[in-house]
Amino acid sequence: MRYYIKQVFSKLYSKMIYEKIKRLAAEEGISIASLEKKLNIGNGTIRKWNEASPTFENVLKVAKYFDVSMDYFAEWEEK
């Protein structure tokens, strides 16, 4: 049960990061593909974060690009 909860939480967290990046990119008028290219992140990698956990290094690259803290991606947003 504990492993299942960890998987579910990890998936939700990854999706939240992806949604925040998607929003930041839209505000800047840049596509996810262009962002990946500018940051030397593999093609399709950020889109995969919708389902899989990103690496710390890649999230840090995105945070620096958009001038946001890593905490920004860790903050849970209520809907």
Task: Explain what the structure shows.
It is a single chain. The protein is mostly helical and 79 residues long. It is built from five helices and no strands. The longest helix is centred in the N-terminal third of the chain and has 27 residues. It starts with a helix and ends in a 5-residue tail after the last helix. 10% of the residues are buried. The model has no long low-confidence stretch (mean pLDDT 86).
Summarize the structure.
The protein has helices spanning 2-28, 32-38, 45-48, 56-66, 70-74. The protein is mainly alpha-helical.
Using brief descriptors, characterize the structure shown.
globular, 79 residues, mainly alpha, 68% helix
The computed structural class is: mainly alpha
Q: Output the radius of gyration.
A: 13 Å
Distance between the termini: 26 Å
Shape: globular
Strand content: under 5%
Biggest sheet details: none
| Number of helical elements | 5
Structure summary, number of beta strands: 0
Which residues sit in consecutive blocks of at least 5 with pLDDT less than 50?
none
Helix content: 55-70%
Mean pLDDT: 86
Secondary-structure element order, N to C: HHHHH
List the helices and strands and how they pair.
Layout: H1 2-28, H2 32-38, H3 45-48, H4 56-66, H5 70-74
